[in-house]
Design a protein that fits this description.
- This protein starts with a helix and ends in an 11-residue tail after the last helix.
- A six-stranded antiparallel sheet has the order 1-2-3-4-5-6.
- It has helices at about 5-20, 25-80, 90-95, 225-230, 240-245, and strands at about 105-110, 145-150, 155, 185-190, 205-210, 215.
- The chain has one domain.
- By secondary structure, the protein is an alpha+beta fold.
């Protein structure tokens, strides 16, 4: 009869022998880890980029819905926006027609050109082509700027003012002028003061349109114009319009 001690000894010897035949060597482990590291380095930027695209679309859809719901509820309570009173100043306009319908965390305040809401510049946004834009974070005389509870920055313009749509440019191509025709504009920055602060990436432009709702800037322009504007050589102001026309999809020709 084989003793208990002998059985244990034989088992251990057999186990060690078996493991010795199937275990990886240190060199094999290091090679495998190296391959995994190379594959991760190659694929991680793509994975992160795709995640950022999905997140951007999701956030943009959410704020687009939020603004439309607020606008339509306000029109139901205050008649068509065609008749909204802008003669009493921005405070009356915003408090009457927008504030009751939005979940606001805080406001961006200051004199013309002042920096607020943690932005590093009074005009922090860049166009899709990399040129500096001229929209201001705050301009208390004609717009209300605020942060929603989800961290989205929104600026609602009551009347035309210093902006970017039709302005001139300096010697470096950076926008300078007074826009005009911006009395229904809404600026949306999905992550507020955090980078990249670029039109078409985290910042988008909308218009308030009576009878339709909050519409992406350029919604009524032809496809060629929208594609030219929302390109690496364009301003990016019509990128929300392009995304919606493309079925909320960031395609290969999008200036990402």
């Amino acid at each position: 009869m084989i003793g208990k001690g002998s059985m244990v000894k034989n088992f251990c010897l057999n186990f060690i022998s078996t493991c010795g035949k199937t275990a990886f060597t240190l060199a094999e482990v290091l090679i495998t880890l190296g391959i995994i590291g190379i594959v991760a380095a190659m694929t991680l930027p793509s994975v992160i980029g795709n995640y950022q695209k999905v997140q951007t679309i999701s956030q943009l859809k959410k704020v687009y819905t939020t603004l439309n719901q607020a606008f339509k509820r306000s029109e139901a309570d205050n008649e068509s926006s065609v008749y909204w009173n802008t003669d009493k100043g921005i405070d009356f306009y915003f408090n009457q027609y927008w504030k009751p319908y939005l979940n606001i965390l805080g406001y961006c305040r200051g004199g013309q050109g002042d920096v607020d809401c943690n932005y590093k510049s009074s005009a922090p946004w860049k166009r899709a082509n990399g040129k500096n834009d001229a929209y201001l974070v705050v301009r208390d005389s004609d717009r209300s700027a605020f942060i929603l509870y989800d961290g989205t920055y929104i600026s609602i313009l009551m009347s035309s003012g210093y902006g970017s749509a039709e302005g001139g440019e300096d010697e470096n191509g950076n926008v300078l002028g007074n826009t005009g025709g911006a009395d229904s504009r809404i600026i949306v920055d999905l992550n507020a003061s955090r980078i990249p602060n670029q039109l078409g990436r985290d910042t988008f432009i909308f218009d308030r349109v009576a009878g339709k709702g909050v519409m992406p800037y350029g919604y009524n322009r032809d496809e060629e114009t929208i594609n030219q504007n929302c390109s690496r050589n364009g301003s990016g102001m019509m990128c929300a319009a392009k995304l919606i026309r493309d079925g909320w999809e960031i395609k290969d020709d999008y200036p990402w």
